[in-house]
Amino acid sequence: MMNALGIILHENAQTSQQQEANPMWQHELTWFFALFHHEFRQGNRIAFEVLMALAFAHLFGFYNPKQLADFLDIPHQKLYTQLKEWSLYYLKEMLIRFMVKQAVEHLKPVLHKSAATQSRAGLTLSVDNSVIDRLGKFLRCTWSWYSGRCHDVVRGQDLLGIVLTINHMALPLHLLFCSKQGRYNTNKADILVSMLTRLKAEFHREGLDLTKLPLTMDSWFVSQPLRQRLHDLGFTKIIIAGKSNYTFTIDGTKQDASQWKKDLVLRHPTWGIDVPSCRVQGLSPTFGAITLFFFQKSTTRSYYLMNFSRVSMRGVEIWHIWKQHHLVECFWKMLKSILHIRAMQLQGNGLYTALLIKVFAYLLALRLQAQRPFSKLSITQVMRKLSRDHDLKDMLTTHFHLPILAM
pTM value? Predict the structure, then answer.
């Protein structure tokens, strides 16, 4: 496959001393073009190069086609015309194929090692949603959603994501915008099960069993029907944040979880659990017998987790799985604050075109971060170093062969 892709990269990259001095760029860009050539043989290669050029420009601080076109002094309409070449099917397929392939590269070596090594890697599937503030009336999937950041209902786009956490990294696996439009009011539980079913099939095609990984999700998704559907899919380890209004019977006393947070005595941090915590057995009218894990993140705020797993788990196991969940929040922050997903406002299918470009930029940054010159830098520091040491026009001319750049 890589040899076949050499043909594309020979056309994309012009031979120069700068290119020979920077084989790192060639290697990482080859990965994207090779995968596109292998998975989408009938795809528009020029339009894909535009996607990659826009993603590449993110590393230099250009976050939408207009900014890049103004910098290159070319008509921005040329870029937007190429972006309209993609159907919604192609956009969604490219999203999931590239994300899964990237995750497989990291996952396969770990799954073939011991259980202890897998545990240290912090393997989890974290499910979360994030609202992207939008005010436009012509942007798809823009509705009123509850925002956890704003603690209020805001107008925007609700993005549901499944992220693989591994070795302190967040690798997106599936991203889907939720909609309130249509004949059938699809809830998030239905969307989540559909996404997990698709991912299970994609990883099976790669020879991996996704159901061996533990699932973590927020209290938004808590329900007994969802618990059963996840078990039917084959997931055996499921940790979900609990709601304060749920009622539990513990040691013969029945009261709300909010009251249990105040009454239970939390033990001091112990081996494997670095926060005050308490693991108890409770009885819920909704979920039946269930293991609860109460913990305190600060001196004033207490939370609790519910073990929806098929098997009983120790407190240290529950905490070790949940500790990785914050990485999905880091991924949302990356999309919003560093890659500026709000800066790209495309109508129609452009909703997923913009998301695809942002994900490509994120994956490219991660792949560069794995290289020795950038291994000790954050993604923000990588972007600053690239802008300081390289000229974007020269890089685009060297590694891309776009007719619009020759204008």
Answer: 0.89
